[in-house]
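Action item from last meeting closed. Structure (122 res):
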């Protein structure tokens, strides 16, 4: 029997989202409702969907590439190593302004759940 604290590797595949980016969920389980961790990948020239998350604080840590993040109408250039803290309910999107892919970690507290995602473009 496995210990309660152990979460087996789910071998999560990258998937396309309506947000106009690819997501790989590294950690998102009811066993750890406090947090989730994913990698987002945005292709060159793409801007993600304007949205907000209900009740979830999201943090981006840029791994690769560069872009412009917009949070509640305020824009900031970002590059590898930069971080953004996005408060619950804040309108957000990011644009890949570089020649290659933009990749970043998405750390959510509490963990991301699809029903918390609100599309602000509709």
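Sequence:
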């Amino acid at each position: 029997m496995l210990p309660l604290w152990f979460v087996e590797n789910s071998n999560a595949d990258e998937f396309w989202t309506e947000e106009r980016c690819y997501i790989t969920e590294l950690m998102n389980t009811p066993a750890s409702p406090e947090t989730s961790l994913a990698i987002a990948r945005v292709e060159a020239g793409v801007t993600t969907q304007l949205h907000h998350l209900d009740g979830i604080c999201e943090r981006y840590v840029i791994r690769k590439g560069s872009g412009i993040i917009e949070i509640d109408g305020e824009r900031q250039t970002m590059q590898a190593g930069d971080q953004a803290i996005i408060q619950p309910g804040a309108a957000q999107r990011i644009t890949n302004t570089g020649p290659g892919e933009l990749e970043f970690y998405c750390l959510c507290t509490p963990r991301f759940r699809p029903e918390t995602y609100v599309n602000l473009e509709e």
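Note appended to the action item: The chain has no helices and eleven strands.
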